[in-house]
What we know:
The protein is an alpha/beta fold. Helices cover 37% and strands 20% of the residues.
Amino acid sequence: MLQIKSALLSVYDKAGIEPIAKKLSSLGIKILSTGGTEKFLNKIGINVDKVEDITLYPSILGGRVKTLHPKVFGGILNRKTNKEDISDMKKFEIPNIDLVIVDLYPFEKTVEDGKSEQEIIEKIDIGGISLIRAAAKNYNDVICVSSKDQYEDFLNLLKKNDGYFDKNIRKDFASKAFNISSHYDTAIFNYFNSSENTFKYSFKNGKDLRYGENPHQKGVFYGDFTSLFEQLNGKELSYNNFLDVDSALNLISEFDGEIPTFAILKHNNACGLASRNNVLDAYKDALSGDPISAFGGVLICNHEIDYDSSEEINKLFCEIIIAPNFCEKGLKLLKSKKNRIILRLKNKNLSKTLIRTCLNGLLYQDKDLVTDKVENFTISTKKKPSEKEIEDLIFSSKICKHTKSNTIVLAKNKQLISSGTGQTSRVDALKQAIEKSKNFKFDLSGAVMASDAFFPFPDCVEIADKEGIKSVIQPGGSIKDDLSIEYCNKNNISMVLTGTRHFKH
């Protein structure tokens, strides 16, 4: 067992350190400190020895150098059972340090707040991170508290054991310390890195999920969910819930600043989506696209959900409802289903990169942030799409972009009529979409068709034509584009080429 007899406290954030310092003092433990921490402890009546009085060296370079001294690090790194270490401690009059408590400069927060480069640089902790690494390395003889998040646990142990800590506890705190250290260094590297083809990413606090994609799989979420959402109701999100929410948010982000748009997703694909002048109509028309698939689905809207819409939504069994806000009365109604997850969208600051595991490694890419726009269109056919068709073409392309390849999306009057998703052939995807639209009694005359990739043959436009579809949007780029264009010209169909492929494998 290690008995703490001396402690070094050097913390940026003073919140929570007072009860620890008072308990250390009551146990007769000698406290060393520097700078702002020393002043804070003196102010609350804690007797503190200045590190400068031990090192006989003042804090210099504007506080950049305070604890970086052999008498400090010797006190931390000495091995109590090593004869040479014991001799050096006596020879150089190095005081022993049994406990190190550090809270690092807030580098990540400073970057997030958009501070100047100089301010960011000054928040790269040198002394603190060195203290943490030294204390964690020598966990056999020292206990290291490396973050304010650990204060409560440490204080409870301190009270329980009156300043004694066994090796397992010290090793656990050392593990936490190296986690803090590596995370901190990763954040700094990613801030500086602009050229090295090196992948580093770090999350400190993973959230254990009930299970993974299936019940026999373990699942953990790493990330800051609360920065995006406030959960207002329901059970904890599952692995699949997280995936669905991610898909829903990425899709609805395509309609930022537009008229009320409601999307319903199932298994990461949209099964209903509509844009209307009010939320209620948007929801009703989104639901009518596929009311069967909507059962147990995820609902998301780009506007506040009012009471009338809440009444309609409440009739449907759904897993998740997401919106930037809810009227108070409507929210109370939606909460009547205790397990229904209700999320208030706080912001849409999603990552601009995508990462996935592959072959014992990772695939990394920029997120597809291109939204097809009129100014980028190339009208490849003699017939030009009407203004209304152009609106539907853009609408359908947004859905297509967020639907699993191969995909075909059919839309009309800013409503998703149907889609064929994740098929091995584009023809099969189209046939699936047509069959689905007929099942729900939709008239495809005047509808538009969107594809996530080019048509290497004219078969898809021919099939669509026979169903009354007269306008098509696709990336283009096939050496046989002319075949599809020729068919369109012969059959009075307009075709727009975007030049941008939207695969989603």
